[in-house]
């Protein structure tokens, strides 16, 4: 791993940790992780290996990433201020899912660059993973699907909340009592 690997992973983790404090939901908040992710894609995607079970590995990790991303987006707390502005707060569960995804890739990359390369070579040979590039693309696909899954989920929830009129507190309370 080089400095930019550490930097990109750290920035993506920090984006959600920053959102633990409630803030107005904005397009900028949705787009920022996509911009950072696009930098990673440009730096690391040099082709898509298709031999052996490379695509199976890519698809499996993309599915894991998408699941974690959607879980993070669903468990984020969206609210509405009295002025009607929709707010976002990641919450601990949402942050956990996000850090799980980002942290697992970070941990995997650290492990393979320090002591785990022989285990990965053995696993790859046994499961017909043909190259280190397949692992890079699979981990990148995991990140892409995690970020996109969370972003699309949050965008859909935000859109729904923006298009739903907030019932005044008294009216909703009176309805609940009857």
The end-to-end distance, rounded to whole angstroms, is: 61 Å
Order of helices and strands: HEHHEEHHHH
Biggest β-sheet, characterized? 3 strands, antiparallel
Protein structure class: mainly alpha
Shape: elongated
Low-confidence stretches: 167-175
Estimated share of beta-strand residues:
5-15%
Strand order in the sheet with the most strands: 1-3-2
**How much helix is in the residues?**
over 70%
| Number of strand elements | 3
Spatial extent as radius of gyration: 20 Å
The number of helical runs is 7
Supply the number of structural domains: 1
Mean pLDDT: 82
Outline of the structure:
The protein has 178 residues and is mainly alpha-helical. It contains seven helices and three strands, in the order H-E-H-H-E-E-H-H-H-H. A three-stranded antiparallel β-sheet has the order 1-3-2, covered by helices on one side.
Describe the structure.
With 178 residues, the protein is mainly alpha-helical. The protein has one domain (3-177). Helices cover 73% and strands 6% of the residues. It is built from seven helices and three strands; from the N terminus they run H-E-H-H-E-E-H-H-H-H. The chain has helices at residues 3-18, 27-44, 54-75, 91-114, 117-126, 132-162, 169-177; strands at 23-24, 77-80, 86-89. A three-stranded antiparallel beta sheet has the order 1-3-2, with helices on one face. Strand 2 and strand 3 (86-89) form a beta hairpin. Helix 1 (3-18) runs antiparallel to helix 2, helix 3 runs antiparallel to helix 4 and helix 4 (91-114) crosses helix 5 (117-126). The relative contact order is 0.19. Residues 167-175 have low confidence and may be disordered.
């Amino acid at each position: 791993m080089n400095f930019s690997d550490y930097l990109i992973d750290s920035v993506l983790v920090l984006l959600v940790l920053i959102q633990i404090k409630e803030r107005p939901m904005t397009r900028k908040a949705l787009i920022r992780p996509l911009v950072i992710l696009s930098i990673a894609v440009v730096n690391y995607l040099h082709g898509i290996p298709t031999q052996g079970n490379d695509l199976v590995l890519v698809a499996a990790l993309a599915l894991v990433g998408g699941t974690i991303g959607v879980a993070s987006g669903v468990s984020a707390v969206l609210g509405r201020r009295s002025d009607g502005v929709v707010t976002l707060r990641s919450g601990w569960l949402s942050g956990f899912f996000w850090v799980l995804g980002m942290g697992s890739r970070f941990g995997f990359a650290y492990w393979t660059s320090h002591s785990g390369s022989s285990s990965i070579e053995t696993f790859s040979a046994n499961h017909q993973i043909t190259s280190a590039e397949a692992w890079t693309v699979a981990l990148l696909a995991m990140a892409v699907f995690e970020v996109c899954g969370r972003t699309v989920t949050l965008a859909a929830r935000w859109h729904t909340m923006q298009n739903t009129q907030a019932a005044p507190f008294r009216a909703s309370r009176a309805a609940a009592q009857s």
